[in-house]
Design goal:
With 210 residues, this protein is an alpha/beta fold. Helices cover 47% and strands 15% of the residues. The chain has helices at residues 2-7, 18-30, 45-56, 70-79, 91-99, 111-119, 136-143, 162-167, 182-187, 191-209; strands at residues 9-13, 35-39, 61-65, 83-85, 104-105, 107-108, 125-127, 151-153, 173-175. A 6-stranded parallel beta sheet has the order 5-4-3-2-1-9. Strands 6-7-8 form a 3-stranded parallel beta sheet. The radius of gyration is 16 Å and the shape is globular.
Amino acid sequence: MSAITQIGIVPIVRTDSAEGAIKSIEAVYRGGIRAAEITMTVPGAIKALEKLADQFGDQIVLGAGTVLDPETARACMLAGAQFFVTPALNVKTIEMAQRYSKPIMPGALTPTEVLTAWEAGADAIKVFPCGNVGGAKYIKALKAPFPHIEMVPTGGVNLETCGDFLKAGACAVGVGGELIDAATIKSGKFEVFEERARQFLAAVAKARAA
């Protein structure tokens, strides 16, 4: 979790093939981002996790996203996932991650969900879909009563808003299509992701310096 906070960005890799996911993560790695999350919506996601875990070892913090239940979390863990992200709050999935001392960022949106997830043992809360409910202003509003709860907003995060989320109190941000998009994968121009990774890291550094 400290590595994710230090990096400040979790690339969310949601592609239509395992190969596309692997190449995308290789590209953001070359661009300097040493963390990534493969969603379980990717066909062959578990195999992609295994391959990347073998390839990178401890050079990258590899996570599994869109984890809906504890069984999936365990399968991802065995494949090499080091952290878990869920779109919604499932206490049993949090318990599974805790059992094996793996960080988990469950999805929550309302103050009640955020507190419930934190009390259940979440390491940070994925505030989702954040962009639809006010973006950085919403994070700032949540942090007022919950200054002790780590938050990773997802949804509505791009190069322009990235810094605002961090200044509002987020410990990191989750970035999906604004970093890794289907059209670029289709064109095979993975170097675009490399460059975007550098731009996002620069945006994080700028916001934190301010």
